[in-house]
Structure formats: structure tokens, C-alpha cells
Amino acid sequence: MIWRFLARRTAMLLVTVLVAGLAVHGALFIAPGDPATLLIGGGKPPNPQLLAEIHRQYHLDEPFLQSYARWLGGLLHGDAGESLAYRDSVTHLLGQRAGNTLFLIAYAAVLIIVPGVALGTLAALRGGAGDTAVTIVTTALMAVPTFVMSVLLIWWLSVQWAWFPAYGAGAGLTGRLEHLTLPALALAAAWIAYVAQVTRSAVRGELASEHVQTARSRGIPERVVVRKHVLRNASGPIFSVSGVAVAGLIAGCAVVEQAFGVNGVGALLVQSAAKQDMAVVQTLALVTVVVFVAVNTLVDVVGAALDHRVSLEGAA
């Protein structure tokens, strides 16, 4: 069953990559403006001969389908093309910035999963005022957009209190942790609330289940009931929502990296899109799609393994 599921997901991924690449390439192809002007600069009208030479060198004069086929063929051979804006290969640009983005996503993932699961479990087990407080706080966090949270954190923890730097990615482990704390918090805030809410619902549902009531009636200690019967059976949906949250961080990185001046893949995507740097935008868009689908596939497989009530046939 798992092999059929993986085969279907692989086929879906290939189709998604083709469609996404075609859509991005088409959007950039019909966008107004001429990317070749990036290489010329200045306020004077560009020389037509120079423009024609740039078009020829970077294949900007090719028809749409020919241009798309050439770019896609290059990717299959490991050549993502050359950036117009940065005068460098796309692969090298991506490699220079991937470390910051991966560190930011990993940091935010820890901030999402640990507090989110802990708060949701606490709210479900304790109930009362604790449950109400967690519900109010998480609902408020879910309503705040990422860019607004970024501005609030910069104003509060960087400008007012000067606890954390508001710009850059830092160097070394300590420097990165210090510089990326605010970006990670801004990226994780809404997802912490989401994970906490789902965890709360999953744990509360298990607490009311028949097998938990039976375990309690047999005199099993409450901590054992919670650990072996409640949390173990609630782990499936908790893991699934945590995986979706981590996958969602990929899209949110662009906003956060721009806000905090982090030299990462998301910021590169935004800057390249503004400059109509087709090679960079297309490649980063496809990388994002592939990573997102791969993470969701992994989440479905592990979620089905943790919770046998979930079928891979339905997940596909």
C-alpha cells in the first residue's frame, strides 16, 4: 500500500512541478518591463544593439514554449541558469542562502512544536481557567498576520527593550540564535496557536474515549493513562498538524526574511521577482513546491504509522 501511495504522490509531484513551472514562467514572460535593462542601468535610453545582444545571450528573445523547454531541460541536467541581477549561477546563489533559511525554519519549528503541544496538552488536561487562557491567547495569535507580528516584535523586543538585534542573520551558532530569535518568533506565532488548538482538541477527544474510561476504571494511575492511552493515540493528529505547520513555514520565510533583513532564500525570491529575474524566481518556486509536497508526503506516511485509523488510500 505504501509503495502505491508513494508512486501516486510522485506522479502528483511531477505534474505539480510542470504546472507550477509553466505558470511562473508564463507570469514572468508576460510581465511588463524588460529584464535586460537591469544589466544596462542609468537613466538614458538603452542602446538597441546592446539590448539585442543581452536578449540573445540570456535567451530573452526566445518564444515562450522554447524558453520554457530550454529552462526545464537545463534543470534536468543540473543547470538552473544564470541570474541577470546577480551575474551568478542560480545554484550558487541558492547554496549561499539556504543555510540561513534552513536554520530559521528549524528554529521556528522547535518554537512551534514544543510550546504548541505543551500548551494544548495543558489546556486539555487542566481545563478551567488554564483552558480559557490558552484559548484566548492562541485565538489572538492566529489573528495576527506574520508581517504585523514582525513589526510588533521589532518595536517591542528590539527598539524598546533592546534584547535582540532586528537585522541580519548573525554568524556562528550563538550569533544565529541571537539574530534569528525574532524572525523565528514572528514566523512561528500563528502556527504555535494552530498546533495548540489541534493538540487541545485531540487530547480532549481521547480523554472522553471509552478505552481511557476503561483504563481509569481498572485503577491504572492517571499519569500512565495520560502517557500510554491519551497522548499516544493523540499523537497522529498532533504530528500531522505539526508537519503542516513546518511545511507552511517555507512560504512564510519570504515575509520574515524581508522584514528582518535575513539573507535567505525567501528574501532572494522576493528581490528576484521585483527585478524580473526569471531564472532565479522559477527555480526557487519549483524548489518550494517540491519541498512542500515532500514534507506533506512524509507527514502522511508517519501520521498513518502513528494512527492506524488513518488510511494512506484516503490521504492520497
From TrEMBL:
Transmembrane segments: 102-125, 132-157, 177-196, 237-260, 280-299
Pfam families membership: BPD_transp_1 (PF00528), BPD_transp_1_N (PF19300)
Membrane topology: Multi-pass membrane protein
Predominant subcellular localization, coarse grouping: membrane
Subcellular location: Cell membrane
UniProt keyword annotations, A-Z: Cell membrane, Membrane, Transmembrane, Transmembrane helix, Transport
Record SUPFAM superfamilies: MetI-like
Alphabetical list of InterPro entries matching this protein: BPD_transp_1_N, MetI-like, MetI-like_sf
Domain of life: Bacteria
Similarity comment: Belongs to the binding-protein-dependent transport system permease family.
Protein name as it appears in the record: ABC transporter permease
